[in-house]
Amino acid sequence: MATAQEQRAEQSSRLDRIETKIDQMSEAIIALARAEEKIGTLTQFGKQQSQQILTLINRVDRLEELVRANASTVSIINKIFWVVIAASATGITGMLFIN
Fold first, then answer.
1. Confidence of residue 3 (pLDDT cuts 50, 70, 90)
2. What three-state secondary structure class fits 58?
3. Tens of pLDDT along 31-47?
4. CB neighbours of 2 closer than 8 A, spacing ≥ 6?
5. DSSP characters for 2-51?
């Protein structure tokens, strides 16, 4: 049979192993808490990015509408310009032939 000192040493050794395992579990729990914090932060960041992307998509859509409206306006102005140039050239040419 084991002596009292050997039993105490064995119990002390067991307690040391238990303490070590509790410390490891404590570290693991802390690491999990940190991971959860990071996941929460990343989730919030992802939501913010999604909102910003939607805002940008809406802005691009509005810009496309404005560009279409401006394109038709510029097309009309371009046609009027060439009509005025052609009329001026015709008028100037007619005046030169008359004189």
1. confident
2. helix
3. 999 999 999 999 999 99
4. 10
5. --HHHHHHHHHHHHHHHHHHHHHHHHHHHHHHHHHHHHHHHHHHHHHHHH
